[in-house]
Structure formats: C-alpha cells, structure tokens
Amino acid sequence: MDRETFLKTGAYFLGLVRLGAEKNRRKSLFPKKPDGVKWADIFYLSEKHSLSAVTFRALESADEKPEGEVWEKWERAYRVCVHADIQQLFAWDELKEDFSEKGINVLPLKGLRIKKLYPETVLRLMGDLDILYRKSQFFEVKNGLQALGYTYKKESAGGHHQIFERPPVTHVEMHRALLPDESPFAEYYADPWQRALPTDEESVYRFSPEDEYIFMLMHGYKHFSGAGSGVRTVLDFYLFLKAYGDTLNREYIDGEIAAADALAEKRGAEGAPLKNFEATLFREIGLWFEGESAVLDETGLEILSDGVYGRAEKRWIKESRKAGRGKYLFGRLFPPFRTMKQAFPVLKKLPFLLPFFWIWRILRGVFKRRKNIAREVRCVNEEFRKEEK
Q1: What are 28's strand-pairing partners?
Q2: Is the N or the C terminus of the chain less surrounded, counting Cβ atoms within 10 Å?
Q3: pTM of the full predicted structure?
C-alpha cells in the first residue's frame, strides 16, 4: 500500500474508532469512506489494534458498510469479543468473591478498570486480567486460583507478576509489583499499596483517578518506548480524560510526573520521559479525536503501524542500538542469571547449573524458534549495516 492510500485508510479507520467509542453514536461523526480505501484493510487494522468490536459498533447501523465475507469476519470477531468479555467478567466476579472470603487484598489494573470507560465493556478487549496483590500473600493467591481450576504457568520475564490460565480463554496475571525491576520508574512504585484506597467491595482496592492516570502513563510509556504501542492505548487515554479530565488534580499529577522523571533519570533515562510521553499522547488525541476528521502525523503513522502489542523488530533495534550489536547478541545467547532463573526456577536452588541451561536454551531455540532467531539476527545486522553506510 502506498503512503497516500495508507494515510487515507488510517484516517478513515480512526474516524470509525472515534464513532464506535462514543456513548451516543452520532451519524454526523460518521466518516465518508475515501475512494481507494478497502474494507478489508480497515478490518485488518481493527484486528491489529484489538478494536474490531469498536469499529463493528460504528458500522452496525451505518448506511455504508462492507458486505459478504469481510462483514462475516467482522461479525465473527465481534462475537469472539462478546464471548471473551462474558468469560473474563465472570472470572473477575468469581475471583473477587474468593479473595474476599480468604482475606486477600487485591487491586484491579489496566483493562479491568478501563473497560468501564467504554460505552459497553465488550468494546475493550483484554488479553489478561491484571490484578495487584500483596506479595506476602502469594501462596494464598496461588492455592485459591488452583482451587478454581487455574494452572500456574510461569513468572514473567521481569519477575513482577505470575501467570495463571484456565481454559478456554481466561488468563490472569497476578502482580506482586506494578513494574519490573528494570523499569526506570520501578523505585516510584516501591510500595504501591501506600496509594491504594478501599472500595465498597471487601478486600478490593483502587487508586485515585490521579494515581490511576499516572500508572497508565508509566505502563503506556513502557510499551511506547519498547516494541511500540497501538491505537487502543491512545483511545484509552482519550476516554479516561473525557471521564475524569475536568476533575483531575493537575497540580498533583504534574508534581508526581516530575518526581517520577527525576527517579528515572537517576536510572539512566534521558530527558523527562513521562512528561514527553504525555505530551505525545495529548498531541495524538487532538489530531485523531478532536477535529472534524482524523489527521496523521509521523508519530501517528508509527503507532498505526505498530499494532496493539507493538513490533518485535522495533524492540530489537532499540535494545541493540543501546547495548551495541555484539553485546546485544551475546546477551541474547547468554542472558544474565536474573533472567535465567525466572525462565528456569530450578536455578534459584541450583545456580551452578546455569551453563547447562544456557546450552539447553540455545538448543531448544535452534529446534523450535529457528526462523524467529534468524529474523532477529538479520534485523539487527541490517540496522547496523545501515548505520555504517
């Protein structure tokens, strides 16, 4: 697709996203589909950014919408979102009841909170149920989840959450910390429970809107500065600011952002990362959702290309530039002990086995992930060849 067509396609897609996320779908907001824009490409972007339910809602009562196989796929994608939403909200209610009975304190994060900002919860798809717990209660959490049919899968790469799964579609991430240790903002959330507020539901806590906004910024920055972040992230902030913008204590938020940036700079972050990320969000929200029609600048094009979970290539290039090609590739072959013990918990008790697990990891990669490894090495080498030229 050439640049001009991609710009028109992206702008039309964003127009549908804006309309689908409105509580009252005003036909005056319905964008006219430009010549040359294909419905299949709009559906592709909807899936790529986990916004198929939002665009389906925009098109459902429209005079101009796709027909045939494309519309059937769109309807099917919407039904999948409905099914997932029912399963996940049922799981959350079940977990709340169980945690309350056991006296386990929890605080819902990310999608569980943001869902309520959308006109219908089905519109905000979640990959996982993200829940903060007190790390001293891990064994009670683990036993309770297993009793409800969940299987403990693994600990995250950053070590700050544990992953549980229950067929067919329920994935739960239990967070003992809000951010991984390597995050530039990890020190800011040394004890997130100091900011927790009680709710009407026993054992369930929440953040104030200001603290929730700051956490959203830090989580969004992690993705945006890494593999990338998609349209849904910007939409989340747009809806959050519509819901709370007039009541937020900006003096408090600005002070906390400045404090977090100061801590991040001590850990090697350049400039004011959180403040700059917020400025980027404000700019894109204005360009996409506050004018008569969406406008795409270079940052907008990048976000549109990334998708909801970003691109691995983008992360590889950023990390290899920071470390240097040789050091980066060596680190990928032989990760540090901290990373390895999270992937292979037996190393916590038997650290002298580290060299054997390095070899096992390499052999497993050769047989199971050969194409992905080759793609990563090729991507890094091509980037450095470009810089050399």
Answers
A1: none
A2: C
A3: 0.84
CA–CA gap between residue 334 and residue 326 (Å, rounded): 12
CB atoms within 10 A of CB 353: 14
Q: What pLDDT score was predicted for residue 27?
A: 72
pLDDT score recorded for residue 147:
94
Higher-pLDDT residue of 24, 343: 24
Q: What pairs with residue 154 in β-bridges?
A: 163
- Between helix 325-333 and helix 370-388 the angle, nearest 10°, is 170
Q: Name which of 160, 137, 125 is nearest 54 in CA terms.
A: 125
**pLDDT at residue number 158:** 53
Strands laid side by side in the 161-166 sheet: 106-108, 129-133, 170-175, 161-166, 151-155
Higher pLDDT, 63 or 287: 287
Q: Which two tokens stand for residue 300?
A: 């907008």
Confidence of residue 314 (pLDDT cuts 50, 70, 90): low
What percent of the chain has a predicted confidence (pLDDT) above 70?
92
What mean pLDDT do residues 296-302 have? 92
pLDDT value of residue 387: 64
Residue 341's pLDDT is what? Answer: 77
Cα distance between residue 193 and residue 191, in whole Å: 5
Q: What are phi and psi of 190, to 5 degrees?
A: -55, -35
